[in-house]
Amino acid sequence: MDPSNPLYVHPSDGPGSLPIQEKLIGAQNYRSWRRAMEIGLSTKRKLGFVRGTIPRPPIVPVPPTTPAENAVRTELWETCNNLVTSWIMSSVSDSIAKSIMFIESASEIWIQLETRFSLSNGSRKYKLSKECFEIQQQGSTVSEYYTRMKCVWEELDSMLMLPRLVTITPEISNFLSAVEKQKEEQRLFQFLNGLDDCYGAQRSQLLLLNPLPSVENACAVIQQEESQKDVFKGGVTIVESTALFSKQETKGKCSICGYKWHPPDKCWEKVGYPVWHHKHKQSQGQNKFSQSQYKPKSSNNGGANNGGGSTFKRTAANVTSGASSFTFTSEQFETLMRGVLNDMKNSGTSGADCTDDELEFVAGMLCLSAATNHALYYWILDTGATDHMTPHSKSMLSTKILKILPKINLPNGQSSEITQIGQVKLNNGIVLKDVLCVPSFQFSLLSVPKLTKDNNCVAIFFPNFCVLQDLATRKVLGLGKKVAGLYHLLNVPMDSVDAKLRNLVDCHVNKGLFSCSAGVYSKSVCPNMFSLWHHRLGHLSVSRMKNLQCNELSSVDESNDTTCLTCPMAKLTKLPFSRSESHCTTAFHMLHMDTWGPYKVPTNGKYRYFLTIVDDYSRATWIYLMVHKSEAVEVLKFFLKFVDRQFGAKVKCVRSDNALEFVKGPCSVFLANQGIEHQTTCVDRPQQNGRAERKHRHILEVARALRFQASLPLRFWGDCVTTATYLINRFPTPLLKNKTPYEMLLKKTPDYSQLRVFGCFAVATNPSRVPDKFAPKGVPCVFLGYPAHQKGYKLYNLITHTCFVSRDVQFHEHIFPFSDSSATKFFQPNPVPMPKPSTVYDDYPTIPTPVTNLHTDDPHLAQHEIPVQSVTQTEPAVNNNEPTSTNQTRKSTRQSKPPTWTKDFIVPTIKPVANQVTSPVLSSQFHCMLSVLETQTDPKSFKEAVVKPEWCNAMNGELRALEDNGTWEETELPPGKKAIGCHWLFKTKYKSDGTVERKKARLVVQGNRQKKGEDYEETFAPVAKMVTVRSLLAVAAMQGWDIVQMDVSNAFLHGDLIEEVYMQLPLGYVGKGEPVQNVKSNSNKVCRLKKSLYGLKQAPRQWFAKLSSALLSFGFQQSKADYSLFTKKEGTSFTAVLVYVDDLMITGSDSSQIQMLKDQLSSTFHMKDLGDLHYFLGLEVTKAESGLFVSQKKYTLELLQEAGVMSSKPYKLPMDPNLKLQADVGSPLQDPEVYRRYIGKLIYLTITRPDICYTVQLLSQFMQNPTSVHMQAVKHLLRYLLNAPGQGILLAHHSKAHLTAYCDSDWASCPMTRRSTTGYCILLGESPISWKSKKQGVVSRSSAEAEYRAMAITCCEVTWLLSLLKDLGIKDLHPITLHCDNQAAIHIAANPVFHDRTKHIEVDCHYVRDQVKDGIIKPEYIHTSQQLADVFTKILTVDQHHTLLHKLGVSFSENSQLEGEC
């Protein structure tokens, strides 16, 4: 791809390849951060992704773009978009990153950040304008002060949006120049206003200039003055930085002695001289100090009178009065003090007068330095510590005091308590997280592993110091000094460490002291002039300083140079890699290893990686294809055994990078146990494993050439790299003196006679050996390489799409079948129809299903061949999707639209023929009902219904019924009570022939506002189980009973309400007997409920209690298996009633008994006779000659319409068989409610669709945090439903009354919990009535245990069904045959002895043994291919899936077969 293309990604681009120095923390730095991001993104040509100018490619490609090109472009766009998103997230704070983590588009993230943090121009301008006059230098350097001012000016300029001028006249140009000059003067005044008072003279001089200088020129003048001050006051600055006492800022001279570097109240003339001073004895003989005895002295007199001692006096004064936040170590301060004494002794004045008292004073100063030593060496770097620990709780931030004090174990066997946990912010800017406060410690320990992980840095240790360097920006974060064998962190700001002070810290305090005399340095006074000029020249290197033509440097002695710590901080770079000249002298002395992958397209054997092993001596290369990177350890073990057995050599050293499969896990332990040295590269330095890296490049170059030449599909890349390795081992190389690796290793010249052109057309003998004299003896193939363990050629059969090895081959090396369509004509005299390539409609790539595997039995090498492939050298065959001819009729891509005249008619939905389900056996009434159900819609709110007269009449009828029933009475709301709300629901009711019976409006109370104990007590009311519904329908179909349906009008209104409940007036209600009006009532009255209403929490319980009492009074008995089932038996007649709230299903052997029950119910309640059962709880029931057909077609079509997949191509399987769902794969969904809604509807669809039961239970496990992968699986399932939306179950009419159960389990199928999946199905005759797919609650130790648990769950369901069927008049069903495909589980169920394999299984699982013993269950073995329960435990092949569903009783229409994707 062209590098100028915005979709181009450079190999070096990654999440950390766009370093932004300043992270976004809020509105205060948003504009500067945005500018830095725009600059960085423009350098990467990715600015359009945040501005929205590079949109996502459309789903439907626009001609002339092909679907393949559009798919590639979409993938590139998503890669670049994710890369830009990672750059943005890495440049913002952690809290902001969490808030934008789930936004998919980078442009949306950019817009959201702009909305959140961009302040209004008015408020921001005011703040910036105010800062221009408030910023002060306050002791900072001129450069830092000017930088702060410049940032404010630049941001203020960016907000001044002036109109663009089309034409510029001379007058306009002069005006703009004057405005610019005025703005420049304003900035000059602002800059000079914030300077410190010490630059007052320079400020006055600059303001007297005419014209006024620019801000840049003024800054340069001030910087020159600043540098001169540093030169002429450098000695004093150095001495002041060593002070231990606080310094009060003084201005002017001392009024007592005349010197200006101390205030009068601290003058030694007033407070007395120190014991080591030469005037100390003189002051002892005098009385108390009186200021009148002394007169102010000038600096000149003081200097003249004191002579050489004046320098020492001035120095000592600054030692006691100087101020600095930085202190020396005890050793450095001792050196400094010894220098003071030596200077006194060598000065020729009073140095010889030093007494023991003076030395004791110096010792006291040293003790004070040691007491404050923690200011410099506060943290000790510890590479073995797991956490940061400190005894100083005052320096911790965001502390958390622990109630239970844990303990930390010490190396001496003792333990110390941890009192707090918090954060510590060091002066150098590093923030230490989760710091443990251990008061008993004497020092603070800094955990190097935790520090490098939290701050994304690396610690580099040198003999005398260490450096902390950021991995992304290469910036030095901190420095450490080695003291007494330990590395101490310099806890000071990196930008404020003075260069000269660093020299003192790193080396030693210089022998002499810096002093100033008349502003001129001399070599005797300042011996380290080399460091001074090194700092003046911007840390110029020593070699460049020698070449400078400067008189001032002619007398500088470079021998006094000391190590500069600023230079590595500013100039530290990666060291160059020298060419390695090392070469082993024996084979297998050293191995170089590296892994490659994963590649986006797996091979035919599902390989995505390969491991490369290179022998250092012979350069022989071995390559092993792998499915997962974790296989590298086992491959290495196999290779070491191979080397030991075949060559009798022992590997001594293995070199690799820091890949996790090598440095962690069992690999390092295995190599250590074998005594093999494992050498790894440094972090982020793959060049140290250069031989393996270069070998990878060579292999891929040859492999690409082989593939391009043969035009092979990408899935054959595994054969390309293995063949490339085979050839490279036979290439001569200059590194081996033009010998081949094959010759170096096996000591013989390779044979090139068997080489053929890779990917060419070949004809081999027919491997199928069909005993047909007229069958072809040869098959067309493609040459794919050289197998390692067989003397033959690896071939790909173009007819059966399988791989095999043969030695009887004829090659046509100028023909390439995948690039030239004439090849098929060459080897096919009689054209054989090849499978048509199917278009991929899936939302994610599917992995081809293996068909056969090629196994090799010879474990030895053929003629000592060098193995170049993995243990399974030949890959499985691929699916039959290969195009064989390009001369195919082109299919139009134009979308077909219905004629315009059909817009006024109701016509069938235009969709693929595969989605149509023909039902020639259905009645015309049922067809009419389905047509009405698919086209009818009901109002969703009161506003939609009140404008239609038919719905107003329905609401009036509902209100009249409630008033006649005495449901409420209007009253005032009592004090302390709260009225709950209500709303309307609308539904169209149909007759059995599909015609509209009536429009029904129902008033529902907002029961969610009720409070337990005040408005209600108990709420539970039983409803019919769906297994009971199917069982009753199956029995009715088997017995040939009539089934009718009845509905109770206002069922909940019949329940008597005992609690005191108040309700607001309904919408449209204006008074008793008044029609509904579209007005809002202004009445303050409420309704006190006397009877139940729909929506009340206690309404279902009150209604069911009244209905059950009525049925029991009619002579019915309540079933103990399902309390919603009522049965009645009189003589030979049998009647059953199934209740689901207010819907009743009635069936029985005597129609007169059914009619009598109808009359009894109608006399007690307001009932509606809906006729024969056709539509019950969303189930569509159809009578046919073969039995009852139950489906949910309308429900399915509504679900597919909601999901928007009606125009998609269907799938043949409910889920991709190669997909393994996990919780942490994919990006989280922005709206997980959509996923949960789909799963809830799919769960209800499993009532009549056992084929999706396993997939739905698998997807329902991720409802808490669904991801995009889970949503793709849901869409896959929906498109499977599109295959046959009218599919259902057939409850057979001619069926025997016996139960048959099937149970199965998929052992450890869950990749996250390793729990097994249980599946079972139970058939009544040939009718499926109960099935389930569920993950087991515990982990099974074996497949037999998992199968045994599945048998236990199935036995429980069978026991319950026996009780239910007994109530329905079906008796004497046992023994129940229980089919299981695991003989071990069957033996455990039949064996009453507890042994090692079953003693850990719960007692409740052994319920199976009791059932077998009692003769209720009879376990039988069934072959896996005949196990119906396999549908509920795993995804099968297409043929097996359809076969088992047909046996299960799932009904397929003759014309409902689909052509879809797996």
From TrEMBL:
Sorted alphabetically, which PROSITE patterns does this protein's record hold? INTEGRASE
SUPFAM superfamilies in the cross-refs: DNA/RNA polymerases (SSF56672), Ribonuclease H-like (SSF53098)
CDD domains named in the record? RNase_HI_RT_Ty1
Comp. bias regions, Polar residues: 283-297, 870-899
Q: Name one GO molecular function term.
A: aspartic-type endopeptidase activity
Highest taxon above the source species: Eukaryota
Integrase catalytic domain: from which residue to which, for each copy?
572-749
- Name any Gene Ontology BP term: DNA integration
Q: Where is this region: Disordered?
A: 280-313, 870-902
- Under what name is this protein listed? Integrase catalytic domain-containing protein
